[in-house]
Input
Amino acid sequence: MVFGASAFVVLSLGPVVFSAMVSAGRLTNEAIGRAATCELAALALGAAIGPRFLRHSHLRAKALGSAVLLIAANMLCYRANSPPPIYLLRSLCGLAEGGLLSASMLVLTYVPNPERMNAYFLGISAVPQAILAYIVPIAIDRYGANFGFGAMAALAVISGLLTLYLPASFGPLPDFVPKTLRTKWTPAIIIAISCTFLQFSAVGAAWSYAAQVAEQYGMSSTTIGTALASNQIFCVAAGLIVGAIGWRVHYTPALIVTCAAMAALSVLFALNRTPVFFVLACSLYGLAWIGGQPFNLKMFVALDPARNVALYAQPVMLAALGAGPYVASYLVTSHDVTPAFWWSMIAFIVSGVIYAGAHFLRPAPWAGATDG
Output
């Protein structure tokens, strides 16, 4: 869970840290999206290659190396004062975060109810993020963006210490996972991956500019800190609720409701100028984001009983979280970031429509086959 917090903390702290860098003249509004894209794309890459890299041997040493790289790259960000070095360092952070996340993914994918454990994982890993999300924006207002990098480095130190408790290597697959089944790349799987990518592109586009739109409308750092902390608290609640009871719901209606809710919240972000509703929007965004994400994993497991696609669900989502801000960076201007939310709204609507009409996204009829 701590590894998850280290990997995902950029999602809660990134918006406010990058926003502070804009205020300090170290980044521009356009560069926020590109910096987020660099880190999240590298995180996705690290999470994609990590399971194969970590699985067979020296799991503990490799995870510790990821933690050390994350600490070093965050500390070097103290000296980065222009976009190019920031892009490079955040990319290195992303690779290291992907390595830590992979250690968690290896465990979570091969359990009897992966969507349920994924929900608990996302919820519990949001606890330290909630604490940091409240403290860091207030501290940044006084000490600058570097405080945020220090906080992320400190969390990486804790992760590094906890790697000592990892096993030396990952064991054989459990009995309930088919050993002979190979993934068959059906149209349903391709459509499911594409729709998930679009959905999470929208998530990333909106969330990367959440803190900046609040500053655009003149909201205080206390309001932003409260909103980000509340977001993480609702993430915790969403993870625990889905883990306890919500995982029994079929993935199709859950994903449709998630996309509809997040499209509405994107509109609220773009139009709202009231601090209370900004805090509410951030809170509900966390609830919908983390509450809906396990159902994407549930869909992948249903379509691919071998769980090879499910193992790469997180990298797909993370790559999308990086792609969304990149697209949005070409839509926003130095004075107005609301186009990011309009793009997000459209992408959520399209995703929801595809899920609603996707009668073909059903469990694979070839579940017992060994077709390669």
Q: What stands out?
A: Confidence is low (pLDDT under 50) at residues 364-372.
